[in-house]
Amino acid sequence: MAVSRSHLVLMGPPGAGKGTQADLLAEHLRVPHISTGGMLRDEAQRGSELGKKAKRLMDRGELVPDEIMLGIVRDRIGAPDCARGYILDGFPRSIRQAEDLEKLNGEAGPLLALSLRVPAEVVIKRLSSRRTCRPCGAMYHLVSSPPKKPDVCDRCGGELYQRDDDREDVIHARLEVYRRETEPLLAYYGKRNALVEVDGTGSRDDVFQRLLEGLAGRGAA
Ligand code: AMP
Fold first, then answer.
1. Which superfamily is assigned to 6-216 in CATH?
2. Which of 67, 87, 93 to mutate to test the pocket of ligand 1 (most atoms within 8 A of CB)?
3. pTM score of the predicted model
4. Ligand 1 centroid to 64 CA: how many Å?
5. DSSP 3-state assignment of 68?
6. Which residue, 69, 64, 68, is CA-closest to 34?
7. 3-state secondary structure of 212
8. 14, 108, 130, 215: which could join 220 in a potential S-S bond, CB 3.0 to 4.6 Å?
9. What residue ranges do the domains of the chain occupy?
10. How many angstroms is it from 93 CA to the middle of ligand 1?
């Protein structure tokens, strides 16, 4: 069965630029950008039981249990705006999540995974100077893409903050979890002939062009 052209999974280590590229792709393909980390941070901000539990794990760089994540993703991709497709950013993060997603996706056929390759030393630098907008989730980099006004989001005027899990000690834990739990997914999607890998270094626009070329090479975009 041919891979889906609009049901996409964006992969890569923390700090690879998944959020930024998922936004661009979502606009280009006119499908929703679904960030599971963003959804968990919203829950944490609301102070729900789920949000409090997720925050404790996120602050240590650990993964939220698969059953919880699957429930969240099942509800979200079942929403009417996902009928034509979606871009998942941050999900799946384990083989179990990938297998469950495949079942959930059912009729839409196998997903296509896009993976951003970025060396560890680059992501460590990017994450430690990253700032995130509290209300809208937009991301900035203090050196390469600073906001026009310090600590204020260009897009919505909201407050920029440093995520608790973007501290140096937590960054190392997140990278370790990525290597152990998530990197095996590259082989998983590779075996299904459903993987496009691109160089994730360089400017936002260069990386986006590479992703579009990768999609075009698969008959998509
Ligand atoms: P992200 O914004 O994608 O970097 O995610 C931030 C944190 O949210 C991760 O470090 C995990 O603690 C949690 N998280 C996000 N997505 C998942 C997922 N698919 N499975 C488990 N935990 C997740």
1. P-loop containing nucleotide triphosphate hydrolases (3.40.50.300)
2. 93
3. 0.92
4. 7
5. helix
6. 69
7. helix
8. 215
9. 6-216
10. 8
